[in-house]
Design goal:
The chain is of the alpha/beta class. 44% of the residues lie in helices and 20% in strands. It folds into two domains: 18-128 and 266-310, Rossmann fold, CATH 3.40.50; 131-263, Rossmann fold, CATH 3.40.50.2300. It contains eleven helices and 14 strands. The strands form four sheets. Strands 2-1-3-4-5-13 form a six-stranded parallel beta sheet, with helices on both faces. It is elongated, with a radius of gyration of 23 Å.
Length: 328
């Protein structure tokens, strides 16, 4: 009997020693597609936040193709893994709602960032910046280098991308009042795929011989368009601008295919998304007017849809692209 008790006690102690001191919180960072420099930078910030907060594992994941269907598969897999939170940049605002609702029903907290999910499919949405300001900025980036005005075209990501569509509508709204001499002749979609974006840029150049600028509010599309302008010997004739990662785009500022681009810090975006997800896991409730801390980035206050804007866009040109290309 004593031997049995001794074995039981020894076994119990061994189990306690083998078990971790706490159950690690798991937050999944689900991106539009893997292999995208913007989201790799966001993951860097997410990992930084996890290290600061402690006890958090960030699972960096996403599909290989930027489609809602592929993201739904990823979300369903994360539900099966019983993660604590999902922070997602959505390929479609509505298609992901049922899967994310299922996640929330199982106690998983859901934050969308960058490209949003409809309110019923998440608890908080973090915009990288104010949509109206981004829309005006991308037009201004072209207009600043077209003193006499001219034709411009937009090369977007997917036609269903929430953030892209909001920025384009804001850009259109700013045109008549603030940029009356700028004519937007077309909007095309490259689906955040470099090959398709390249083909769409070539198509714009062929269709509009008087085109003066291509505006791409997507880090994939802006690189593709600048490469086409470079390859076709159109530097100085067509200016490429939009939203770009300095590390990916420096060569096109250097060679003159672009005069300037803008972006917020994707490192800060991933970092902030993890802070928000962690607050929800700890029991904080999302509600209009509620203010949340996002660590070193500052704080955000939710609007009536439980969304908030992180920061204003920052411009990169010949004066600073070298410095920032070493950061992200």
């Amino acid at each position: 009997m004593k031997l049995i008790k001794l074995l039981a006690t020894t076994t119990a102690v061994a189990v306690l020693l083998a078990a971790p001191a706490y159950a690690q919180t798991r937050i999944a960072l689900v991106v539009k597609s893997l292999g995208n420099g913007f989201f790799d930078a966001a993951n860097k910030g997410a990992q930084e936040a996890a290290a600061e907060l402690g006890g958090i594992e960030v699972i960096y994941t996403g599909p290989t193709a930027a489609t809602a269907e592929a993201q739904i598969e990823v979300v369903n897999s994360l539900i099966a893994q019983q993660v604590d939170a999902i922070a997602i940049s959505a390929n479609d605002p509505d298609a992901l709602v049922p899967a994310l609702q299922k996640a929330m029903e199982r106690g998983i907290k859901v934050v969308s960032f960058d490209s949003g999910v409809a309110p019923e499919g998440r608890q908080i949405h973090l915009n990288p910046s104010d949509n109206a300001l981004i829309g005006e900025t991308i037009i201004k980036l072209a207009a600043d280098y077209l003193p006499e005005g001219g034709q411009v075209a937009i090369l977007s990501a997917a036609s269903t991308a929430t953030n892209q569509n909001a920025w384009i509508e804001a850009a259109k709204a700013a045109l008549p009042e603030k940029f009356a001499n700028i004519e937007l002749v077309a909007t095309v979609y490259g689906d955040d795929d470099s090959v398709k974006s390249t083909d769409e840029a070539k198509g714009l150049i062929a269709a509009y011989p008087d085109l003066k600028a291509i505006i791409a509010p997507t880090t994939v599309g802006v690189v593709a368009a600048a490469q086409v302008v470079t390859d076709q010997g159109l530097i100085g004739k067509i200016n490429v601008t939009g939203l770009a990662l300095p590390s990916e785009f420096k060569q096109f500022i250097d060679n003159g295919a672009s005069q300037a681009v803008a972006l917020w810090n994707p490192i800060d975006l991933g970092y902030s998304a993890v802070y928000l997800a962690n607050d929800l896991i700890k029991g904080e409730e999302a509600a209009p007017g509620k203010t949340f801390s996002i660590g070193r980035v500052g704080e955000v206050t939710l609007d009536d849809t439980n969304a908030a804007a992180m920061a204003v866009p920052f411009q990169f040109d010949k004066t600073n692209i070298e410095e920032f290309s070493k950061i992200y």
